[in-house]
Design a protein that fits this description.
The complex is a heterodimer of chains A (717) and B (102).
Chain A: H1 2-7, H2 10-21, H3 27-53, E1 63-72, E2 75-83, H4 85-108, E3 128-129, E4 136-137, H5 144-163, H6 167-185, H7 192-223, H8 228-232, H9 235-243, H10 253-268, H11 277-280, H12 286-295, H13 297-307, H14 309-312, H15 324-345, H16 350-370, H17 374-409, H18 424-427, H19 429-443, H20 450-464, H21 468-493, H22 500-503, H23 510-525, H24 545-551, H25 563-584, H26 594-599, H27 601-607, H28 612-685, H29 693-716
Antiparallel strand pairs in A: 1-2, 3-4
Helix pairs in contact in A: 2-3, 2-5, 3-4, 3-5, 4-5, 4-12, 4-17, 4-23, 5-6, 6-7, 7-10, 10-13, 10-15, 12-13, 12-17, 13-16, 13-17, 15-16, 15-21, 15-27, 16-17, 16-21, 17-19, 17-20, 17-23, 17-24, 19-21, 19-23, 20-21, 20-25, 21-25
Chain B: H1 4-24, H2 28-53, H3 59-89
Helix pairs in contact in B: 1-2, 2-3
The chains are: A mainly alpha (717), B mainly alpha (102).
């Protein structure tokens, strides 16, 4: 089992390497490699999950091992793997959704279709002419293999993030996912909007990551380890972190670190105020959206917070005041849930509605963690992954069907605008029924769907914990969620087709609808394993597996059964669904949204996402560009260039001074003088060299006589 | 017996004649002849001193014989050089053989 745990993340990494290095020329080979990798990881995850649910007390005695990785002084930084209930459950839904998304991608990228004559890499395929007809058919994605390489890397990072046992590897995987999201959101990089969205996603999540890195550094500095078990399952460490006061704002160290790590979640899981990147991430191909929204990125954010739940709640007891990070999480989560749900009301793009619903649902999870409802939060994370993956893949299927109609008719309608759809129920029955399952689950349709059970658990936790404001906010957003789900369903599938494209849409291929069916199954069934035991009639029919499985580590937080939250949740769900249907059932193509008439200026605010993007552009991006375009060139020209020029001038002055003082008089003068002296003396002495032997003899005679005279005088005189 | 100084005077006269020849003659062969005279003046000196002072020893004779040999060798080389110079330059006048002028 341990070996298996190590091996789970590996196949997608190998697949990424293989595809990008060797098989990228062959589309068929590439997707088989990717599928095989996802399948292997899936198999490993299922085996681990099956083993994990058979274990007693896995929460307190998880499967874990580590190897020495980096020497740090005289100790080692260890990295390893950890399988506890949280990672087992996460592995389960991650493996399923990833496998389904991989399979779906084959159909989504039109494998098997011919390549279009005008298709370019970096742009969505334009379709291919059908011989002898005026209509066109979808064409295969030009960068097909590259797509599979990227999502393989994405999958690797997510698996690694889930199975690791320390924050460092989690952070590395976290950043790889940031990179993958950048690459995949910008997959159609020739579109400026996709490029901008990719950069936005990368930079926005980076804001959160910076804080998270800070938290990580503080944690390591204080505790000397980043291992989960050594920090989180260690009451001594947690206690000292919770009681010692940090220098920042009088927070305890635990609160400070908890807040910083939560900032990572805010970025990755798109909580207010860093939520703006997630809707723009719709620029990527739809399987990528599903990947980001369900299987990987945003789940990773909540996973992190759930993982650090013991740290965040350090020093907190059931029924007492919330700790600072919990309070912040509860407020941000509840606010985001309502805020994003309201924005979702005003969107026309089928994927954008889903994007905001993701933000809203993530807000639920964060709020649930904030009020200490750990099990409820993880349960919602679990069910949400299934129904949100389903909804995204379903919307991809709808868009694909619309695209088909658009190519066949030459229509110009926007294939993602819900107002140009309508009546797709008959054209795309499989997509409709699976989408219905997903949407009902999202709306929390009572008793039947997974979304109901998890959302109800969050609501009842909020109610039982006496967090009334949180409860009301969440209930209100549950109502709005149901409303926009019904709006989406009605506009897309019910009524009459509003454009020729919708009229000619037809069902997607089986390779796309099969994953939908599998995910629809989970979107319904996944909730049945988390039914509280004290629920009337249904409680105890199936064991509350999720609660038991996760509950081991943390005290059961759900109190006694209370009918009020249940009633509120049922009313919100059914009422929202009914009203949504009522308002939009007679929508015609040209008419404005009836909500606009009813809500007036509020609707305009929803439509414009409360102008958060505009605000950021004004407050952050414009000053930044101003700084880059005006201030920085000035600094560059005057200060940087100026100082460099001054240094240059000083150097050249120094050089000429040296030349004047040292080089010319000394270094040149001495050898030159020696040379001319030699020349001069040579010129004089050459006169003695007459070349005449007898003159030489005369001079030597004279010298001898002279010498003789000297000797005579000296010796005798 | 003839006193030693007579020999020495003859030798000195001979040396001076030779020296004059070496310094004053224009012809290279004349210069060589002057050198021979000077060498022979030395030889006379050597033999005179030997005969008067060290006649029981053989050293003086040997010394004189070596001077003969050296003089002969020098004359042979000198004449060879003069011949060679004459063949190349067409002259045996010492003043005209001034290629080594600085």
């Amino acid at each position: 089992m341990l070996t298996l745990l190590w091996l789970v993340p590996i196949p997608p990494l190998i697949s990424f390497t293989l595809i990008s290095l060797f098989t990228r020329r062959s589309r068929r080979l590439s997707h088989w490699v990717a599928l095989a990798a996802a399948g292997l990881s899936w198999l490993g995850s299922m085996l681990l999950f099956a083993w994990a649910i058979g274990q007693q007390n896995l929460a307190n005695d998880p499967l874990t091992t580590a190897i020495n990785f980096l020497p740090t002084g005289d100790t080692w930084l260890q990295i390893g793997v950890l399988l506890d209930p949280l990672s087992a459950l996460t592995l389960f839904f991650v493996a399923w959704t990833i496998l389904m998304i991989f399979i779906y991608s084959i159909g989504y990228h039109n494998f098997g279709q011919p390549a279009g004559a005008h298709d370019l890499p970096g742009l969505p395929p334009h379709g291919v002419e059908v011989a002898g007809a005026h209509s066109r058919e979808p064409s295969v994605e030009p960068l097909y293999s590259r797509f599979f390489a990227f999502i393989s890397l994405f999958a690797f990072a997510m698996f690694a993030l889930v199975v690791t046992d320390n924050l460092l590897v989690l952070y590395a995987a976290w950043e790889i996912m940031g990179l993958c999201s950048y690459l995949l959101i910008g997959f159609w990089y020739a579109r400026p909007s996709a490029r901008d969205a990719a950069v936005k996603a990368f930079l926005t999540t980076r804001v959160g990551d910076m804080f998270m890195l800070l938290g990580m550094v503080i944690l390591y500095t204080i505790t000397g380890t980043l291992n989960y078990r050594e920090i989180l399952a260690n009451p001594g460490v947690l206690g000292s972190l919770a009681t010692n006061i940090s220098p920042v704002l009088g927070l305890s160290w635990a609160a400070l670190i908890g807040l910083l790590i939560f900032a990572g979640t805010v970025g990755k899981s798109a909580q207010f105020p860093l939520h703006t990147w997630l809707p723009d991430a719709m620029e990527g191909p739809t399987p990528v959206s599903a990947m980001i929204h369900a299987a990987t990125m945003v789940s990773a954010g909540v996973f992190l917070s759930a993982r650090f739940f013991p740290l965040i709640t350090a020093g907190w007891e059931q029924g007492h005041l919330l700790t600072t990070p919990m309070l912040v999480m509860a407020i941000i989560g509840a606010f985001t849930a309502l805020f994003a749900a309201l924005i979702a009301l005003g969107q026309r793009d089928i994927k954008r509605v889903l994007a905001y619903s993701t933000i809203s649902q993530l807000g639920y999870m964060v709020a649930a963690l904030g009020i200490g409802a750990y099990t409820a939060a993880v349960f919602h994370l679990f069910t949400h992954a299934f129904f949100k993956a389903l909804l995204f893949l379903g919307s991809g299927s709808v868009i694909h069907g619309m695209e088909h109609g658009k190519l066949a008719t030459g229509d110009t309608a926007d294939q993602q605008d819900m107002f140009s759809m309508g009546g797709l129920r008959g054209k795309m029955p499989l997509t409709f029924y699976t989408f219905l399952a997903g949407a009902l689950s999202l709306a929390g349709f009572p008793l039947l769907t997974a979304g109901f059970w998890s959302k109800d658990e969050i609501l009842s936790s909020a109610f039982n914990g006496n967090y009334l404001i949180i409860f009301i906010t969440l209930a209100l957003s549950a109502f709005i969620t149901a409303f926009y789900s019904a709006r989406q369903l009605t506009l897309t599938f019910l009524g009459q087709p509003r454009t020729p494209s919708a009229k000619h849409a037809h069902e997607s291929r089986h390779v796309m609808t099969l994953p939908l069916a599998v995910l629809a199954f989970f979107a319904i069934v996944a909730g049945w394993f988390g039914v509280p035991e004290d629920f009337p009639v249904l409680g105890g029919v199936l064991p509350n597996f999720i609660g038991e499985f996760l509950g081991g580590a943390h005290a059961a937080e759900t109190g006694h059964f209370n009918p009020i939250p249940l009633l509120v949740s049922i009313v919100a769900s059914l009422g929202g669904l009914y009203l949504g249907w009522l308002v939009h059932r007679h929508q015609s193509a040209a008419a404005v949204d009836p909500l606009k008439r009813g809500l007036g200026v509020f609707f305009t605010a929803f439509e414009h996402k409360f102008w958060v993007d505009e605000f950021y552009r004004l407050a952050l991006i414009r000053p930044a560009t101003w700084l880059a375009e005006v201030a920085v060139p000035w600094i560059d020209l005057n200060i940087l260039d100026g100082s460099l020029h001054a240094i240059g001038r000083f150097g050249s002055w120094l050089g000429s001074t040296f030349r004047r003082v040292l080089d010319i008089p000394v270094a040149n003068g001495v050898p030159d003088g020696a040379a001319s002296l030699t020349k001069w003396s040579g010129g004089k002495l050459r006169l003695t060299q007459t070349g005449r032997v007898q003159q030489y003899l005369v001079s030597s005679l004279m010298l001898v006589v002279l010498a003789g005279l000297i000797v005579m005088l000296v010796l005798n005189g | 017996m003839i006193p030693l100084s007579w020999y020495l005077l003859v030798a000195a006269a001979l040396f001076c004649i030779g020296l004059f020849g070496v310094l004053a003659r224009k012809n290279v062969i004349g210069i060589l002849m002057g050198i021979e005279l000077m060498l022979n003046a030395v030889n006379i000196n050597l033999l005179a001193f030997w005969s008067y002072l060290y006649s029981e020893q053989v050293n003086g004779l040997v010394f004189a014989a070596i001077v003969f040999a050296a003089a002969a060798a020098e004359t042979a080389v000198g004449l060879g050089l003069v011949l060679s110079a004459y063949r190349r330059r067409g002259t045996v006048i010492a003043d005209e053989l001034d290629t080594m002028k600085g």
